[in-house]
Amino acid sequence: MKTQSITIDLPSDILLSLNETEAELKKNIKVSLAIQLYQKEKLSIGKAAQVAGLSKFNFETLLSENNIPISNLDFIDIVNDSAKLK
Q1: What is the pTM of this model?
Q2: CA terminus-to-terminus distance, the chain
Q3: What is the span of the domain harbouring residue 38?
Q4: Residues with Cβ < 8 Å from 45, sequence gap 6 or more?
């Protein structure tokens, strides 16, 4: 997978304030971004998992642990899908 780096500037004391390493902060930023983009329906669950650096299963687990639905289907979608299966 080809990647692109994006640089953001943060206050120099942010790692000390958060009591995190640079690697931990990067990971947390990627996970938070992935969740936000997924919730806004900008990315599929698979692409969001890639942004987070997680497997799809682990990303779905993370969403579930944070009470974030892993499906964007509404009631009408479910009814329509179940009718197609009959």
Answers
A1: 0.79
A2: 40
A3: 18-85
A4: 38, 56, 59, 60, 63, 70
